[in-house]
Description:
Blueprint: H1 11-35, E1 54-59, H2 65-77, E2 82-87, H3 95-100, E3 107-111, E4 115-121, E5 132-137, H4 142-152, E6 162-167, H5 183-186, E7 187-189, E8 195-199, E9 204-209, E10 212-215, E11 219-224
Parallel strand pairs: 1-2, 4-11
Antiparallel strand pairs: 1-3, 4-5, 6-7, 6-11, 8-9, 9-10
Helix pairs in contact: 1-2
Amino acid sequence: xxxxxxxDIDIVAMKASNYLMEAAxxxxxxxxxHCAVRKPKKGEAPKPERKPNKAVIWVAKEYPKWQHMILSTxxxxxxxxxxxxxxxxxxxTPEKTxxxxxxxxxHVNFIAVPGLTVTFTNPTPMSGLFTISVTLVDGDTVExxxxxxxxxxxxxxxxxxxxxxxxxxxxxxxxxxPVAGDHVTKCAELVNGDGIRVHVEASRIELVQNGTNIxxxxxxxxxxxx
Length: 226
């Protein structure tokens, strides 16, 4: 009886697996420390850190393509909306980051980018899809917003079937009694590629469409035709 021979060892796959495990472990520790309640000053109530929605990963030098792909997957592992990879020779690199970062050992900074919480309501009766709150930040796009909604609503499997709508009258539109299907006449669809400007202090959100900024309010509609 012939013995089975083991296949050739994939060194790159082994390195990728080890790199992913080590990076994910260290980044979770960074995230835990970032979100920990800081010791308050005397007489002050403890304030928990805002949950971060962006990570900046610092690397000490150029790295293989497979490492870049793995760093990108960490966005999903840590539930982030955005991830950015930067090199320590960038002029804006913090001094402590330069000290902590070494080749093969990336360093991460978690950031809570300020934004505004908006609501998306589904107008389809008996759909099982309910109103959801999503935080938008300056620079978001329609595609990014769809990804945020799909991450929260597990029933949305095909993001291409997800449509977002803004009220033509952002002040009065949300106040009118909803009628099934009337979103088509009182709303306009948000198109992929359109950008979002978020003015946190003014509590105002604008849609950037064909070079024009449109005030869209804080209440929206979403439909899922699947």
